[in-house]
Amino acid sequence: MLHIEENVSLASLNTFGIEVKAKYFVSIYNESDLLELLKLPLWKSQPVLILGGGSNILFTRDFDGIVVQSCIKGLEIQEENESEVWLRAGAGESWHGLVMHCVGKGWGGIENLSLIPGTAGAAPIQNIGAYGVELKDVLESVDGVHLEQGTHLHLSAEECQFGYRESIFKHQLQKIFFISSITLRLTKKNHILHTEYGAIHDVLERRNIRTPGIRDVSDAVISIRRSKLPDPAELGNAGSFFKNPTVSDEVLERLKRAHPAIPYYPFDNQQFKIAAGWLIEQCGWKGKRIGSVGVHVNQSLVLVNYGRANGKEILQLANSIQRDVEQKFGITLKMEVNIF
User: Fold this and answer.
1) Whose CA is closest to 321, among 306, 340, 337?
2) Same-domain status, 45 and 99
3) Which of these, 28, 11, 15, 16, lies nearest to 63 by C-alpha position?
4) Strand order across the beta sheet in which 302-305 lies
5) Is the pLDDT reported for residue 186 higher than 80?
6) Taking the CA of residue 209 as centre, how many other CA atoms within 13 Å lie in the half-sphere pointing to its CB?
7) Residue 179 domain-assigned?
8) What is the pLDDT of residues 290-314, one digit of tens each?
9) Residue 223 pLDDT greater than 80, yes or no
């Protein structure tokens, strides 16, 4: 039975800890709940926001509509053989909890994505990634409901149209698709470990681990993330606020002439990715605080709420950073966080 609440605080449902309210709020525990909601007159008369863990969102005002929180849980093996397992996860499952479950079972593929906040259902939207691994590398399919048609939809990984922090869910299916579950294809043996990132390699070296397993890699990633990123429960933030920009080889050569130390690495089709955190730091923003908002002292990509900020103050800070990076480097930083 659906329970629709009114005038609900969202402060505990967004990792920035911004105090805003939803005009209407409803939790969805299965697709039947959602199909019931779609039939109500209220659904057709109000704006809709689907909310997962609230870890990639910045509220700048109250939401004058229906906030739908995905609470669909469950982990279920769909298929397995000697070397692989196909695991289905409900959209409301904690992403890090899912990773820890897989590491505990000895299933490889997502250990580099440890400690990323949010839910399993939100992971395909951003095509989350870290330390050389992206969700698209292991995702088999996505299931959900087309909100306009009221029908179940199954999408293969190819149909999700993944790119760097991109997917079909941010374009053609934006606001009209509700993800109910994802299925991952993971390895049970002969794991392909990604330890090439310097930070992971350094941690393993310090721990004298010469032949790491998936748990070793996961532990290293967790250690790195905890050393760089603040815990949202202690300091409001949404992780990386900006995407790493991609540039052509021509633009890269121009940047290297002016800034020989600029960090970069090859991406796709003669494109190169530039470290956004470095750009921000070079503009003097690292560790800077303005009132109740600021840039984290250990990671320039992370904007933080020191406790009493509103969303507009954080957005103003982000806009100031964008302006300074554009003026100094001629690069426009794009926000990774969704603004409402």
Assistant:
1) 337
2) no
3) 11
4) 236-240, 302-305, 293-295, 289-290
5) yes
6) 17
7) yes
8) 999 999 999 999 999 998 899 999 9
9) yes
Full residue range of the structural domain in which residue 107 is found? 75-187
Report which DSSP code applies to 14. S
The pair of three-digit structure tokens given for residue 113, joined into one six-digit string:
């994505």
Pair 66, 80 in one domain: no
Q: What are phi and psi of 11, to 5 degrees?
A: -60, -40
Q: Report the distance separating Cα 8 and Cα 66, nearest Å.
A: 10
Regarding whether 168 and 124 lie in a shared domain, the answer is yes
Distance CA 47, CA 43 (A): 8
3-state class (DSSP) for residue 280: helix
Q: Supply the pTM of this predicted model.
A: 0.85
- The type of residue at 273 is K
Query: What DSSP state is assigned to residue 113?
Result: G
d(CA 216, CA 204): 8
DSSP result, 163-223: BTTB-GGGTTTTTTEEEEEEEEEEESSS------SHHHHHHHHHTT-SS--HHHHHHHHHH
Active site residues: 165, 240, 336
Q: What is the CA radius of gyration of the chain?
A: 21
Q: How far is CA 259 from CA 12, 25, 263, 282, in A?
A: 42, 49, 9, 10
Are 63 and 80 in a shared domain?
A: no
pLDDT in tens, 139-176: 999 999 999 999 999 999 999 999 888 899 999 998 89
